[in-house]
Input
Amino acid sequence: MAATGLDPLLRLRQSIAANDPPFTTTSPDPTPASDATDDLAIATHLQFNNPQHSYSLDTPTRFISSDKAVDLRSIWFAWQKKDVAIPDYIASAQQLNEELAAANSTSRIKNLVFVERLDLITWLEGASEESEYIKGLESDASAARSARVASGAAGGVSTIPSSSAAARSGKTVDPRLQEIYNGERRMGDRNSVLRGIKPTDFSHVRKLAEAFLSRSRPAKAHSGTTSSSHPSAQQNPALASHPKQPQPKNHPSRRPDPIILLSPSASSLLRLSNIKSFLSDGIYTPPTTSTTAANILHISRLCPTIDAHRPLRFILVDTPEQFKPDYWNRVVAVFTTGQTWQFKGYKWQHPPDLFKECLGVYVGWRGEDVPGSVRGWGRSVVSVGVEKWNAGQGVNGRWRDREVVEGVWGRIEEWMRGKGWGKEGGPMAR
Output
């Protein structure tokens, strides 16, 4: 059955959270199994279960790109390609657009840029509750209009006699009294008053204040817990018997993810294709040249001297092309081969300046000389060597790699601690 009154973007997020993803069909009311298809070039609708609803793939959504609403087909395509690299995503979008044109369809896939696609996927996965590219629902807009009425900005029931009303009734209003009337506040009706001003969006204030509050908030050790005979008193500190003793925080403050930059050079021993097995598993394997490799990776590691209870999530990329200015404050290490062209798009393009702000890591073969350029960059660049890959032994002969990896992590952790990383957040802006 076709959906009415339900937001397709929100419905998609709910189905992903329930692990019950929708499927594409060739009709709005699919009954035979033949109506289901994975080919977006011929599909016309997106079918949801529990409850059953279908949406046209041409339905515009609340996701805005270049001041235009992105259709549901482009949203579903971006979600399906969430794990592929940017070049493969762009190539797939072009191929699908060609297939749509060949089928005489006027629909086209909107190619989302890296930041938009990352923001959309993060929101659909439920990792974030808000997105700067997603417009609010109509219900929120209606509530905002009611709030304007309640504040006297518009609408409502007027209790102030206007000059036009006085003219119609044949009465003359004293000019001074009319001036007072004009300065009075217009009253809202009972519906607008009950709505209040809740629709006001202060999310931007929270984002700006988060970085400052996480550093200015002193660390407090809470001893004991506040007890109450009423269950609601335990949930609300204001209802507790001792309101001056705050309860321990159940959810620690959000901490920025540190970033590690890799070298995009083809001669680098560590690339995005093999860095995770090296840093996470302590095993070196040769990098692959597959074009389907992810362009961003995440590694979680417990750093006891920074936070002994919560692991840090490191972001690994091989280019700062999509960096925002504040991302550079989170870069903690740069893996390099000694080639200076790697730093062309960096905030600090001169190696001595770069390695004053970030730890440098050079990984070469054990027994081979470290390039002179790397040695000349100072003690802020750590050089390590791994055994050459033996195809006959495979991973069975890589028992020394773990020692090298732990040494690299130790230097990264030491560097982060020196730059101010701790339980509450990262360093100050650089």
In short: The first strand starts at residue 23 and ends at 25. The first helix runs from residue 8 to 17. The chain has a mean pLDDT of 79.
